[in-house]
Amino acid sequence: MKRSVLFLLALGMVLLCFPRADARSSPPEKVLRISIDGAIEPILAEYVQDGIARAAKEHASLVLIRMNTPGGLGQSMRAIIKAILSSKVPVCVYVEPTGSRAASAGFFILESADIAAMSPGTEMGAASPLLEVAGYPVQVNPTLNRKIVQDTLAFLRSYVVRRGRNVALAEDAVTKATAYSAKEALKGNLINLIADSESNLFQQLNGMTITRFDGSKTTLHLGHPEVINYGMSMRERFLTRIVQPDAFFILLIVGVLGLYVEFIHPGLVAPGVIGAICLVLALYSMQLLPVTFTGILLILLAITLFVLEAKFAGHGILGIGGAISLVLGAVMLVRSPLTGGGVSLNVAFGVAIPFAVFFLLLARLMFRSHYWKAASGTESLVGVLGEVTEPVTQEKGQGMIFVNGELWRAVRATADGNGGQIPKGAWVRVVKVEGLTLYVEPSDPPAKRPHAG
After folding, report:
1. How is the chain split into domains, by residue range?
2. What is the DSSP string of 217-271?
3. SS3 state at 187
4. CB burial readout 36-64, b (16+ within 10 A) else e
5. CA-wise closest residue to 65 among 28, 121, 111
6. What share of the chain is helix, strand, coil (3-state, %, to 5)?
7. Which fold has domain 28-234?
8. What is the pTM assigned to this prediction?
9. Measuring CA to CA, which residue among 229, 114, 118 is closest to residue 160?
10. CA 104, CA 69: separation in Å to the nearest integer?
């Protein structure tokens, strides 16, 4: 009996050493962080969509999109908004750090979030739609402009109303291009809160109950969240780099130069392959960037001037004109009032000047090579003087001449009316080579020939 009592006491003490299941610390809530820094374009939209899908798979409590953007493409913006509205995980769009903005397309994305937040010193708005051609806004007739604006407003209202935000002020950002500071946006019920930092944001969101787009309510628990930074994949980083204006210009120039080298020196292979790859990548970038027709024309004009300078020796005038045209073409190649993006002056000069020098050098060597005589073989004998060792006539197999230290069979190329014979000891000039027979014509001895100039 005593043994049984002792056993039960020992068992009880052991069980007390283990915490109850409900007393164990729960794992920290996961927050998946996505960064939007720059223009809204297709690669960035794909990255955001993948991040939201990843958050759902990992059962995250919140998707945090840190944003600083001047705007971008409408189709990419709509793809991001669609992913936010259909997300199974609550999405918070946070405009930060100080000095950042959510302009144009960024305004629409901010308003679509479950939680819209801004840091002090940031701005939002100026979301009037622009119809662009070659990267520049164009004037359209009033009817078409009204259709574009009304379609944009309807799209904005479709989710701003469900989010419980100020529809009138949101529409003013589109119709009047109104911009709002963080304080104005909070006072006007365009955003939910202002947070000084990410940690302050989580403190304000902890315990908050939000209404999702489908009407369901969710309470956030973000006391000590585990923040997972979701970066771009290697493929997305690569594609994002090549759609930058500077990278696009470099790819275009390297592609043109590579194909040109392969054209003038067939068989090198490597320049042609590299040039073709660079041009294909440049064409891919051209589909996404607002490339101007003027910039392309100036670059083509520059290449034409380089070729003319090499061929006709324009004393540098054509070459200088080509270099200026290339720099201007680079500066004007990509331009958009939405993004303000374009080829930087450093890259324009740093690429254009070496390209001009190298292209001119290659072109000049190519044109000069057409006038060079063969340095070896029988063709190198054309124009060379020789001394007759056996009389040369118009009949093959009789005459012999001494040329470049060698004896050659020779035939007179033209007759002079006296039988066409060139006596032994006379001097001749080679005018044609046919097999092992040289066709010659009389010439003065080397000492008696007049000097040029």
Report:
1. 28-234, 243-369, 378-448
2. EEE---SS-EEEE-PPPHHHHHHHHHTSHHHHHHHHHHHHHHHHHHHHSTT--HH
3. helix
4. beebbbbbbbbbbbbbbebbeeeebbbbb
5. 111
6. 50, 20, 35
7. 2-enoyl-CoA Hydratase; Chain A, domain 1 (3.90.226)
8. 0.66
9. 114
10. 8
Q: Estimate to the nearest angstrom the gap between the alpha carbon of 63 and the chain centroid.
A: 29
> 270-297 in b/e burial notation, b at 16+ Cβ within 10 A?
ebbebbeebbebbeebbebbbbbebbbe
Angle at 185 between CA 182 and CA 187, to 5 degrees: 110
- CA pair distance 12, 261, nearest whole angstrom: 87
Going residue by residue through the chain (453 aa), what tens digit of pLDDT does each one get?
A: 555 655 555 555 655 555 544 434 456 789 999 999 888 888 899 999 999 999 999 999 999 999 999 888 788 899 999 999 999 999 999 999 999 999 989 999 999 999 999 999 999 998 877 655 444 444 456 777 788 888 889 999 999 999 999 999 999 999 998 999 999 999 999 999 999 999 999 999 999 999 999 889 999 988 888 999 999 888 888 888 888 888 888 999 888 888 877 877 777 788 889 989 999 999 888 877 778 888 889 988 988 887 777 667 656 677 788 888 888 888 888 865 444 567 888 888 888 888 878 777 777 676 665 555 555 556 677 888 899 988 888 777 678 898 887 888 888 887 765 557 888 888 988 888 887 788 888 888 876 544 444
Tokens 């001097």 belong to 427
* DSSP state string for 190-212: SSSEE-SSHHHHHHHHTT-EEE-
DSSP 411-451: EESS--SSTT-B-TT-EEEEEEEETTEEEEEEE--GGGSPP
Q: Domain 378-448 is classified in which CATH homologous superfamily? A: Nucleic acid-binding proteins (2.40.50.140)
Task: Tell me if 358 sits within 8 A of 365, measured CB to CB.
Answer: no
